[in-house]
Amino acid sequence: MGRERTSGSGLETELAKHKGIEIHGGNLRVVFMWRRIRCRESLGLPITKANIKHAALLRAAILHEIKTGHFDYGRHFPNSKHATNYSSAKDEKLGALLERYKPLKAVDITPMTEEKYGYALDICTALVGIDRLAGVLLPEDIQLLRTLLIADRAPSTVNHYLATFAGFLGWCETNGYCRMGLSEACNRFAMQGQEPDPLTRDEFQQLVEKGCLHPQDSAAITLAVYTGLRPGELCALAVEDIELDAGQINITRSITANGTFKVPKTGKPRSVLLMPPAVEACRVLLSIVADHPSRVIEVFQNRHESRKERVTPLLSPSTQARKKIINFWYVPTAWNTKWAAIQKRSGIRPRRPYQTRHTYACWCLTARGNLAFIAKQMGHKDFTMLVEVYAKWMEEESAGELSRIWKELLKQHSPRQTQ
Asked: Where in the numbering of this chain does the Tyr recombinase domain appear (predicted)?
């Protein structure tokens, strides 16, 4: 490999003038960098001054095509064993590809999700380089991206960005714009996970008795703790969702931070059976909004399908509002603010509003509730998440549970008494 000696000082002088032209096996070959790979291709031409100049012109043309993004390996070197491998990706800038990808992805997601995805994609693409050619990206570029992201962001945020960017890279791979395997390099960061921090019975009582200044607030918190609803589901409840005679509420929608209604997280409605405290909380809330008018809302099932409903907000900021102009529905961010104020007045340790959902799960588990039933109440597909997230509360009952199981087995295996 490299430059072999030529049979004349004139040829040596001519060869020295042109960078990237070598002699190999008695013939001329060109050397150039493409997609961060050093490429060497023999031209099959004997060593003459004219051929050296021809090789130099060919190399200059190749470099120009690479720079402008029009290089076609197979066209220049159709017989090369590398033609298929090296031509598998097209030279496209990352920023241009992103602008093509966004509207294609948007058809499958809601406008608010599109906004979140777009923000994450823009940040990742800017860090990698919007003018970088997708075809030259290596796994180490994605590893560098991970390092830059985690430097000043929470792991949960970074993992969201990486998951979103992996989807974009997967699309690039499928369409031949970059090498395969880049999306797999978007490894998420391991997270300890924030363990559930449920309310104790005493803390719950402090919340509703000391922290709440209005019956609506104490009833809403009671309903949240005794149903395990997600904050968005709680805020989106309507009078029409309550079935007191049947002792249940129907969860058919959730509300986002910008006030958009959508279907629940799993995409499916569910019915939640109510414990006595939740039934009483519903009665209080219904009485408070008994004279409130119904409102027409639009619930997005996906980006292209939605349904119109006429319903009456069960939890409404207008109930306690002093302003003349007020939202008719709580959004999760507004509920967060109210929740923080209630906690502060009650004197308990601060928690996120989502902990009311964890409280419901932990209370049910420590009461030895059926896992499948609890999972269905909370809107999980199965009880896998219960086992993963709430294992600590299940393990605390393990010793007593073994004794209870053994007693049941003895009953089942004992001889039946004849009558």
From this structure: 194-403
Paired tokens of 415: 């001889």
Phi/psi-derived region of residue 247, left when phi > 0, alpha when psi is between -120 and 50, beta in every other case: left
What b/e string do you get for 78-101 counting C-beta neighbours within 10 Å, with b at 16 or more?
A: eebeebeebbebbbbbbbebbeeb
Closest CA to 128 of 71, 172, 85, 191: 172
Q: By three-state DSSP, how is residue 364 classified?
A: helix
CATH 1.10.150-classified regions of the chain: 94-185
What are the tokens at 179?
A: 């090498």
**What is the C-alpha to C-alpha distance for residues 219 and 314, in angstroms, rounded to an integer?**
11
Q: Are 182 and 135 in contact (CB under 8 A)?
A: no
Give first-to-last CA distance, the chain, whole Å: 98
Q: Phi then psi for 38, rounded to 5 degrees?
A: -80, 115
pLDDT at 419 over 50: no
User: Tokens representing 366?
Assistant: 């420590």
65 phi and psi, to 5 degrees? -65, -40
- Distance separating alpha carbons of residues 305 and 303, to the nearest angstrom: 6
Separation between Cα atoms, residue 400 and residue 403, nearest integer Å: 5
pTM over 0.70: no
Question: Three-class SS string for 25-59?
Answer: CCEEEEEEEECCEEEEEECCCCCCHHHHHHHHHHH
**Residue spans in the chain of domains classed CATH 1.10.443.10:** 201-360
Backbone angles phi, psi at 311, to 5 degrees: -140, 165
Q: Write the pLDDT tens digit of every residue in 72-106.
A: 777 788 778 766 555 555 668 899 999 999 999 98
Provide the CATH number for the domain formed by 201-360 in this structure: 1.10.443.10
The angle formed by the CA atoms of residues 42, 47 and 52, to the nearest 5 degrees, is 75
The DSSP bridge pattern shows strands 37-42 and 306-311 to be unpaired
CA dihedral 111, 116, 118, 123 (to 10 degrees): 170
Rg (CA), the chain: 33
The proportion of the chain whose per-residue pLDDT surpasses 90, expressed as a percent, equals 49
Which helix (H) or strand (E) segment holds residue 248: the answer is strand 248-251
Q: E-strand spans in 252-362?
A: 254-255, 261-262, 270-273, 295-300, 306-311
Give CA–CA dist 37/366, Å, rounded. 60
Q: What's the rounded Cα separation, in Å, for the pair 332 and 339? A: 10
